Amino acid sequence: xxxxxxxxxxxxxxxxxxxxxxxxxxxxxxxxxxxxxxxxxxxxxxxxxxxxxxxxxxxxxxxxxxxxxxxxxxxxxxxxxxxxxxxxxxxxxxxxxxxxxxxxxxxxxxxxxxxxxxxxxxxxxxxxxxxxxxxxxxxxxxxxxxxxxxxxxxxxxxxxxxxxxxxxxxxxxxxxxxxxxxxxxxxxxxxxxxxxxxxxxxxxxxxxxxxxxxxxxxxxxxxxxxxxxxxxxxxxxxxxxxxxxxxxxxxxxxx
Length: 255
Description:
- The chain is about 10% helix and about 60% strand.
- The chain is mainly β.
- The relative contact order is 0.20.
């Protein structure tokens, strides 16, 4: 009789506990997918380009760029397909390099001779060209040819900021994420670039693509290739513009 009573009590307790267990299991939230996507990110970056050419709008040739700076990103939208971020960059070191001009004057009248002058102001293009001349001064006829080409180089110190920027990372659940991006801003340099009379205040924009490799949820490395443009938007006497293919690497951290 005592055994039957104990069994009855255990059965009743089981019936009472079972609905509570089922309810607790039903209220357990589904597992959140694992994303490699920070809300706020900070980075340190370095970018370099060894040459320039007419890619989009610029016509200045053989210009080099070296950038050192920091970046900030803020997540806008996250889905299983894309991580959309606002992205801004500050470049306290924005260096630009121009090739200098070499002039070779070959005079044929009144005397024959050659005069070479190097380190002159940069030309927009480095394709050699010759200017033939004939002029009369005080009854004396001077004639000859001036040939101009590029020789030597000068670096100009500047600063830049890109407050307008967007970045899209694809496959945010993966540690290796392809990305595309674009930025817009301005640059101030200590002298006119890329030629005299082009102005020291220029606007900038870039479009790029690359990979972001996550070492952990909070740390990653970005490797990018960008089409980078600098020009003064016709706010100065001359506006040849500079187009560079820029390689950039960033170390990024945040949470």
